[in-house]
Amino acid sequence: MRQPATPATPSTQAQHDRYQRMLQMGTAMLANGGEDALQMKELAERAVVSLATLYRYFPSKDHLLLAITRSRYESALRRVAGEQPRGDTVRERVTGHLLREFRAEQRDQRLTAALVRVATDTRPEYQPVIADIQQLHLRVLEHVATAGGPVDAGLRRRLLIVLDVFGAATGRWLAGVSSAAEARFEIRVGCYLLGDIGKEEAA
User: What residue spans define the domains of the chain?
Assistant: First the structure.
């Protein structure tokens, strides 16, 4: 049986620059035309890299989509780390953050659809990256919930459930099963699991 290809990891500054350029161009192509518009040959041309270089870092389109997803959550974690928390309680902060995240998904629905599809793929070779993405999303919510403070096991368990609710609400909206308003309602209801923990209790 043929072994799945292993994506290369950039090590030098020049490689990192090319890698980021490929991610940026790929994201733009997805946002403009959806997954069908993301053609690897055209992406290589737009990113000014050879097709061989592109495939070395992203052996398939799904590898590229996973890398884009991980990069977006890494950026989100850096962003929330530099922001003042909005809201007086854990529930207010997490609800506000997830509703803003959902609004961003609405603005780029074609991009969201592609990234959600690959992030829920069950192929074994994708699971380490998907686990990294899920952990990054959780870390973003933990930082938002506690304003950068410590997170106890009980809160972490509840945040994991809230993330499941958020993912399910997004999936139903993408599938056309529920409206955006219904998805927002589901997100708010899921966040009620967090209760009214104040900043002083969460810290």
Answer: 13-202
- Dist. CA 92–CA 194, nearest whole Å: 9
State the DSSP string of 23-56. Answer: HHHHHHHHHHH-GGG--HHHHHHHHT--HHHHHH
Q: Over the stretch 106-151, which tens digit does the pLDDT of each residue have? A: 999 999 999 999 999 999 999 999 999 999 999 999 999 998 889 9
Angle at 170 between CA 65 and CA 109, to 5 degrees: 55
CATH 1.10.357.10 applies to domain 13-202: yes
**In the chain, which stretches have pLDDT less than 70?**
1-4, 196-203
